[in-house]
Specification:
Low-confidence stretches: none
Protein name: YIP1 family protein
Organism: Catenovulum adriaticum
Structural class: mainly alpha
Main location: membrane
Largest sheet: none
Subcellular location: Membrane
Number of helices: 12
Keywords: Membrane, Transmembrane, Transmembrane helix
Distance between the termini: 44 Å
Amino acid sequence: MPLSIIKALISRPKFAFQQIQQQQISGWIPFLLIIISLQLFWLIYFAQVDIQWLIADSLNSLAAQASPSEQQALAEQLTPELIRYSSHISSSLMLILQTLLVATYLNIATKLDSHNTDTLKDWFGFYWWVQLPTVAQLLLSVIVLWITGSNQFNLYDLQVTSINQILGLQAGDALFSFAATFDVFSVWSFILMFYGLSVKTQLKSSTIINICVIPVLITLSFSYVFS
């Protein structure tokens, strides 16, 4: 059944969320798929990347924002082990935190529907289904890594479907972080959230679109302010 639901999320997203709602399918399924895929991605990435090049590239990107003494301290602290462990752990924690924040937002925003009784826990599980395109995104990144055969690829280079492939912004440019990470899989998640909310609430389509767009606008604003 979970496999059929995942297939339906591609071709019949509204039907998929109806099945999830009716059968009360747990959010643990997409959560485990995403977290396991993420950990496998890091294993493959670090098995292929030139770790010394990655350290140098990371230091170069931080150089403009750090003093010489801070650069020296970073160079001493940024070890291969630290990069590996921090990537495995921090990426998962950030994903969980992001899900919690969006779930909190949805729990508040959907109060516009007086008939909706979903709790924060319900929205937390729901948003993992919305993020399932992350698995396809990670798979594509691995394929790109293997096809190129290069061992000098940072994470942004692997985002081959991002809008930055069109805009061509550089690190440090306004909106670079947003443009480099927002891609077709982000659009897919946006569509899934729309259909999911249309099943779980009785809100108008225009209201649901506004609810879906606000997190994107917030991310865009943060990217601009902190670039």
